[in-house]
Amino acid sequence: MISKLRQMLVLTVVIGAAAFITGPKIWPMGHDVPTPPANLLPAYIAFAAVEALAFGFAAAFAMLGWPAIRDLHLGAGWLNKLLFVTLIWFMGNWWFHDNLHMHVALDMRRLVYIEYGFHGSMLACAVILVLSLVRRASYAEVRQQPYPLTEPLERLHP
């Protein structure tokens, strides 16, 4: 049986490679997007590959990562679900985002939808991530208390 880590790696590479190849076909380059200088083209291609791999990782995490997030003690099952979606979106949205930027180019009407949709959702995801971390830290802090929380404060902090 293949380990979960190996499954994640294989899925990341396979899905990432497919995303890298299909991205420009799904979202062809806008007509008014300038061609980058030849000395910068490798950097753009390399970063497109990194974003495609991030998308592959997000897809692999979506398929295999739920048990790890489900078992976190956040105090509310709905928060575990939102955190799971948040982590997938944090890693996976860049492939869509940059390809759409290249596709719509300088069409300001469509560009504003990309900005609000992607940047707005990332801000919402940041709030969910912070809330999850604070809830997790609070839970861990409660578990480390030497006395039950019903004890007087003097006994907790002599």
Explain what you see.
The structure is a single chain. This protein has one domain (4-142). The chain has helices spanning 4-26, 41-64, 66-70, 77-104, 108-143, 153-156. It contains six helices and no strands. Helix 1 (4-26) packs across helix 2 and helix 2 (41-64) packs antiparallel against helix 4. The chain is mainly α and 158 residues long.
> Which sequence of SSEs, written as H and E, runs from N to C?
HHHHHH
Percent in helix:
over 70%
Find the structural class using helix and strand composition: mainly alpha
Q: Tell me which oligomeric state these chains represent.
A: single chain
Q: Give the N-to-C terminal Cα separation.
A: 53 Å
Query: How many DSSP E strands?
Result: 0
> What portion of residues belong to β-strands?
under 5%
- Spans of at least 5 consecutive residues whose pLDDT stays below 50 are 151-158
In DSSP terms (H or I, runs of 4 or more residues), the helix count works out at 6
Approximate shape: globular
Rounded to an integer in angstroms, the radius of gyration calculated over CA atoms is 21 Å
Q: Mean pLDDT, as a whole number?
A: 90
Please indicate the count of domains.
Answer: 1
The biggest beta sheet is recorded as: none
